[in-house]
């Protein structure tokens, strides 16, 4: 095959251009200190590097999730600490209001402070994290999950779910507690399950409501008439009946059903009951008859639970006396607020345990990130000494090829004739 001068020059120029490109690429990799990232350069290394890089990105996401979880848990702990301080102050108020020497003016001041603490507790329940997301709304996305209705009752508009974030291939971490767990489902003074705000409302009502009423008990020799408020609650009435033979706790809805429940326990108490009129029932026995610990499920407000009056041969004697519901009883209120303090303390312990788990998992992820960075570096980093040797070899090759080309290009037929 005959090669002309033009084709010979073109082929050599292309060869020089390829060598210069390889030299330039090698110089760039020496400057950056990294290997050739192309799969064609080393297919096995490329596969291993891709897997390591993907793992590195995954660990980065886990680390970000752990930082977010730690932030939310820190905020939750701070907020619950504030809630616990409010509960402690409520406990002090409950103790002061239970003292008989507390005057009406001071009781009014205590009731006003309870209202202020209630408002502060609503603000606590609607607290947000560093990103402005509600801490206690669950997964609902509601910014203010606890709102006060026109009737003055605090309702929850979030859900019972708890946000969780993936922190490893097999584990997800809870980033707090739900609003339902934190502020709902707390046992009230009367044994019913309600919200934190129900307990505060009961305390406010017990301080300022019907100061002339007995606590929650009434006793009379021979019998008494008990008049219930039909609008006080949405559920059955529960009370303790005591007679000459003992006591029993009964519960029923309508007065007729309550009478039947009391009569069913006559053998235990020695007390019999009958419907007097409307919502009034008569309780009689051969000795002292008493009623106490009245609970009307679903009841709210400051009104008395019932009125009671002594009976003499079936006829009321004297003026009726108002009875406090159990949830307004002094001792019951102190117990309820004490339960509230324990509730928030337990929540802080739970959040603290979650925070410790986040820190521990964070250290594990950091250690894994160090290992994966070393693996990536081993696959990406260039052997600079070997690359410089290769560069020198290529430069020498290019220089020799160029010199040969110049020398061959300078020859002609006359050189051979000589």
Topology readout:
Blueprint: H1 5-32, H2 43-97, H3 104-125, E1 146-148, E2 154-156, E3 164-166, E4 172-174, H4 179-183, E5 186-187, E6 193-194, H5 196-208, E7 217-228, E8 237-243, E9 246-252, H6 255-264, H7 266-269, E10 271-277, E11 280-296, E12 306-312, E13 315-323, H8 330-380, H9 384-409, H10 413-417
Antiparallel strand pairs: 1-2, 3-4, 5-6, 7-11, 7-12, 8-9, 8-11, 10-11, 12-13
Can you describe this structure?
Strands 7, 8, 9, 10, 11, 12 and 13 form a 7-stranded antiparallel β-sheet that branches. α2 (43-97) runs antiparallel to α3 (104-125) and α5 runs antiparallel to α8. Helices cover 52% and strands 20% of the residues. It has 418 residues and is α+β, with helices and mostly antiparallel strands. It starts with a helix and ends with a helix.
Overall mean pLDDT stands at 80
Low-confidence stretches: none
Q: What summary fits the major beta sheet?
A: 7 strands, antiparallel
Strand content: 15-25%
Protein structure class: alpha+beta
Order of helices and strands: HHHEEEEHEEHEEEHHEEEEHHH
Radius of gyration: 42 Å
The tally of helices reads 10
Taken from the alpha-carbon principal axes, the silhouette is rod-shaped
The total beta strand count reads 13
- Helix amount: 40-55%
Cα end-to-end separation = 25 Å
């Amino acid at each position: 095959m005959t090669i002309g001068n033009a084709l010979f020059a073109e082929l050599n120029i292309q060869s020089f251009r390829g060598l210069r490109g390889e030299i330039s690429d090698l110089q760039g990799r020496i400057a950056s200190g990294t290997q050739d990232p192309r799969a064609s350069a080393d297919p096995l290394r490329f596969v291993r590097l891709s897997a390591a890089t993907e793992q590195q990105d995954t660990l980065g996401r886990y680390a970000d999730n752990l930082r977010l979880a730690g932030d939310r848990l820190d905020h939750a702990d701070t907020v619950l600490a504030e809630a616990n301080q409010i509960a402690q102050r409520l406990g002090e108020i409950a103790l002061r209001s239970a003292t008989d020497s507390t005057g009406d003016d001071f009781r009014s001041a205590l009731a006003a402070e309870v209202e202020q603490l209630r408002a502060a507790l609503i603000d606590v329940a609607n607290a947000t994290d560093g990103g402005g997301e509600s801490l206690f709304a669950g997964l609902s996305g509601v910014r203010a999950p606890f709102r006060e209705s026109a009737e003055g009752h605090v309702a929850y508009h979030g859900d019972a779910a708890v946000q969780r974030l993936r922190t490893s291939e097999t584990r997800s971490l809870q980033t707090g507690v739900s609003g339902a767990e934190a502020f709902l489902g707390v046992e009230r003074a009367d044994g019913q399950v309600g919200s934190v705000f129900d307990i505060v409302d009961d305390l406010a009502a017990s301080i300022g409501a019907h100061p002339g009423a007995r606590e929650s008990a009434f006793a009379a020799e021979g019998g008494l008439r008990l008049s219930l408020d039909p609008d006080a609650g949405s559920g059955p009435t529960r009370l303790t009946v005591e007679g000459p033979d003992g006591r029993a706790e009964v519960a029923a809805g309508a007065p007729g059903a309550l009478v039947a429940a009391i009569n069913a326990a006559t053998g235990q108490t020695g007390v019999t009951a009958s419907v007097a009129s409307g919502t009034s029932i008569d309780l009689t026995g051969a000795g002292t008859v008493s009623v106490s610990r009245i609970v009307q499920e679903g009841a709210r407000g400051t009104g008395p639970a019932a009125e009671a009056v002594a009976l003499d041969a079936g006829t009321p004697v004297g003026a009726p006396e108002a009875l406090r519901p159990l949830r307004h009883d002094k001792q019951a209120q102190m117990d309820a607020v004490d339960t509230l303090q324990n509730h928030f303390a337990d929540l802080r312990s739970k959040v603290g345990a979650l925070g410790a788990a986040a820190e521990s998992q964070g250290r594990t992820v950091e250690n894994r990130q160090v290992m994966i960075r070393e693996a990536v570096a081993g696959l990406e980093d260039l052997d600079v000494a070997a690359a410089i040797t290769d560069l020198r070899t290529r430069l020498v090759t290019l220089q020799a090829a160029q010199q040969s080309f110049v020398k061959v290009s300078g020859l002609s037929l006359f050189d051979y004739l000589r």
